[in-house]
Automatic annotation (TrEMBL):
List of residues binding L-aspartate: T122, N126, D127
Record-listed L-citrulline binding positions: Y90, S95, N126, R130, S178, S187, E263, Y275
Pathway it works in: Amino-acid biosynthesis; L-arginine biosynthesis; L-arginine from L-ornithine and carbamoyl phosphate: step 2/3
Residue ranges crossing the lipid bilayer per the database entry: none
Substrates-to-products reaction catalysed: L-citrulline + L-aspartate + ATP = 2-(N(omega)-L-arginino)succinate + AMP + diphosphate + H(+)
Quaternary assembly: Homotetramer.
Protein name, entry field: Argininosuccinate synthase
Subcellular location: Cytoplasm
Alphabetical GO biological process terms: argininosuccinate metabolic process; L-arginine biosynthetic process; urea cycle
SUPFAM superfamilies: Adenine nucleotide alpha hydrolases-like, Argininosuccinate synthetase, C-terminal domain
UniProt organism field: Selenomonas infelix ATCC 43532
Gene transcribed to yield this protein: argG
């Protein structure tokens, strides 16, 4: 296989793992050409040194692709509209970033005439699955190389020694946590978090302030939606990137969106993670508030169950599977009337409802009022209850007859 691979496109982050992978690929795959691809999904200043670092590590070419807008509009917003959350807490920040990155890898691999795609995901995690399933769905003939499943560099110390041996520039300081960042979230794993009994340290937070350090006065924010998609904050129309950036700032200073979960990884083990997700938490809360107004009971309840399955598919790396696409079509149908404005109160880590309006609201004060009305005959409820409860009555009579 090594002789067949002449050109590899590598998902490159600039960190120790992917920097070491470049010379490792060349060493173990017959001095193949390695093209580094760094995907910008809103991780900020982390990208500044990657171009020169990739070339210094032995890459023949470096692509830095800005995927932030595509990431939000084509991956985050559909998941938000679905209301998909993994295991009740995790807003899928890493999960739906992987398919957009892998799609970019495939596009560049096709343009460059590459034989294979490589990634730096470990054999213990979910990301290996997400990257590789996307490649299989979009380019089934491309080979996939996962060095962590092949090499004998079984520790950070071993990787640093390999880097020094090959003259690869790497930062040698050991970060406290393993982190993944994009415009949607920042995740923290490892170190003291590996013991679920340990409370997360406030010093760990890099985006949000700790709730107890947030201002003593609440802050109000309004979010406008059109067909389930957020389009404005506090009355100001904004594009996807600008909108989320603004909500991240608002949520972060009020300490909202910090999630601590011991989740079930796809590969079978439990993993403890702490996520900072200020803007995303606000959007999920606001979107749900608007659906309370705009969706009928049967649709809302069915969509609740569907959202669990949708979240599992995204978490499992099945973004491009037929079921996810079919569920997305159902979601889009439900969102035709999810238009309006939601007002929220943010206070020391809490998101609190403060009113919602929609031209498609199904709420009718005329029907629900405790005051006098001319539209609802309360006597109708008796017949409804008799028919609705008939199976219970028949079963009870049967049980009495058997005594």
């Amino acid at each position: 296989m090594a002789k067949q691979i002449k050109k590899v496109v590598l998902a490159y982050s600039g960190g120790l793992d992917t920097s070491v992978i470049i010379p490792w690929l060349k060493e173990h795959y017959d001095n193949c050409e390695v093209i580094a691809v760094c995907a910008d999904v809103g991780q900020g200043e982390e990208l500044d040194p990657v171009h020169d670092k990739a070339l210094a590590s032995g890459a023949s070419k470096v692509h830095i692709v800005d995927l932030t807008k595509e990431f939000l509009e084509e991956y985050v917003w559909p998941t938000l509209k679905a209301g998909a959350v993994y295991e009740g807490k995790y807003l899928l920040g890493t999960s739906f970033a992987r398919p957009v990155i892998a799609k970019a890898l495939v596009d560049i691999a096709k343009r460059e005439g590459a034989d294979a795609i490589a990634h730096g995901a470990t054999g213990k995690g979910n990301d290996q699955v997400r990257f590789e399933l996307t490649v299989k769905a979009l380019a089934p003939n491309l080979q996939i190389i996962a060095p962590w499943r092949e090499w004998d560099l079984d520790s950070r110390t071993a990787e640093i020694a390999y880097a020094k041996k090959h003259g690869i520039p790497v930062a040698t300081e050991n970060k406290t946590y393993s982190m993944d960042r994009n415009i949607w979230h920042l995740s923290h794993e490892g170190s003291d978090l590996e013991d679920p009994a340990n409370e997360p340290k406030n010093s760990m937070f890099l985006i949000s302030c700790a709730p107890e350090a947030a201002p003593d006065a609440p802050e109000y924010v309004s979010i406008s939606f059109e067909k389930g998609i957020p389009v404005a904050v506090n009355g100001e129309k904004l594009g996807a990137v600008e909108l989320l950036t603004k909500l991240n700032e608002i949520g972060a200073r009020n300490g909202v969106g910090i999630v601590d979960i011991c989740e079930n990884r796809l590969v079978g083990m439990k993993s403890r993670g702490v996520y900072e997700n200020p803007g995303g938490s606000i959007l999920y809360y606001a979107h749900r508030e608007l659906e309370y107004l705009c969706l009928d009971r049967a649709t809302y309840h069915y969509k609740e169950g569907m959202a669990i399955r949708y979240g599992e598919l995204v978490y499992d790396g099945m973004w491009f599977c037929q079921l996810r696409e079919a569920l997305a079509a159902f979601v889009d149908s439900t969102q035709e009337t999810v238009t309006g404005e939601v007002r929220l109160k943010l206070y020391k880590g809490n998101i609190i409802s403060a009113g919602a309006t929609s031209p498609y609201s199904l709420y009718s004060q005329e029907f629900v009022t405790f005051e006098h009305d001319d539209v609802y005959n309360q006597a109708d409820a008796g017949g409804f209850i008799n028919l609705f409860g008939l199976p219970l009555k028949v079963r009870a009579l049967m049980q009495e007859g058997q005594k």
